[in-house]
Amino acid sequence: MATSQICLGVDLVDVLDLLKRFGFPETKWHELGLRLGLRKNTLDVIEAKHRGDVPRCMTECLSQWLGRADNVDSRGGADLNSLSDALRSMNETAVAEKLKHHVLINIFNNHHTVLSQSLCDPVSIAWLLYAERMLTQEAVSRVVSASPSIPNQREALLTAVKEAVQTDPNSLHTFTNVLCTISTNVSLGQAILDDISEYHN
């Protein structure tokens, strides 16, 4: 299930909104463009055309990147992983981490419907996640007390997992690894892992 185009937001408005929300300074648009694979000449043309209009320069820079101009493909293409790499190379680590967090939450959200319909043995998963220190005993108790209704147990588990992922996006890896240890859930876990690895490739 290739969800990256759906959930990872590689639309111009989405990228602009994410960078603004995560605190990326627009004044660094020129350096960002270089690190994304745009040529200096391309960026100089943008600057000359929109002199003094920093937000417009940023928009045009990202538009060129999304259009895969210049050397964008050699820098990883126009996706959020290459954007994250560029941000890290500029020491904008906090922005890159927020971007990663956003992506992982969206991956979980994209799989939520399938998980809520197909997840097997939610109580065992809850206890395994507790053993991994991802869920609290209180969260496990909510899953257990939703018995005997499997759909209610699933929903209680997924609510707890979503809260954990929102707090620590790396929890999504723990969740998928646990899913993959239960034969009836391997395909669910693998689908999420595939989306995570697609983001990282």
From TrEMBL:
InterPro entries listed in its UniProt record: DEATH-like_dom_sf, Death_dom
Segments forming domain Death: 28-103
GO terms, biological process: signal transduction
Pfam families documented for this protein: Death (PF00531)
Protein name as catalogued: Death domain-containing protein
